[in-house]
Amino acid sequence: MRRLIIAATITCTTLLFATACNGDKTSGNPAPAPTSSAGLPRAGAPAVQSPLKTDLLATDPCGAASKTEVESVGGALQSAEAEDIAGGRGCAWIFAGFAGDVSGALNVSQPDGLSHLYALKAQGSGVTTFKPLQDIAGHSAVEYANGGEGQGACQLAVGLRDDMTYVLVTQLRGGNPYLDDPCGLSVKIAEFAIQHLKAVQ
Known about the structure:
Layout: H1 2-12, H2 55-59, H3 67-74, E1 77-85, E2 88-95, E3 100-107, H4 114-123, E4 129-136, E5 139-145, E6 153-161, E7 164-172, H5 182-199
């Protein structure tokens, strides 16, 4: 819960990471294909070429990556559980042996998607780290922070649609193979999440 609370606090400082059900509902009828929101992208953010429905992560946040998948890249897990975050739901993957944790969730608090981060960067405020990354499974991503940078720490947002990001907050400690590359681990988990979403479109 500790990392998730920290992530929610970041949202209060105008960054990204409050989660909740994003309005996608699971029913007997297929959901309509997602479309780009009017006016997005903006502030130089890249357009999402293949927008994804996010029902899976809205209803089952730990469906982003299985225990086996996370352990295959980050080592043994103590637990992988859905938790409440700022009125919504996210998933916390906690590594065994106090080796750190990763939390991930849809960010429904910022309907501008990646454009929100690009706008903060353009304004010259709200971010102390802003680093566009190589596309993750065909989706644009940004490493960002508003303070708190350090060994084992990474915050990453990947655009699932022009109006929706999936955010990962990582804090690793000694014993984790990705201690010196926490964003590398975040990218791996984001890849799993996108693969699972693509499988249920």
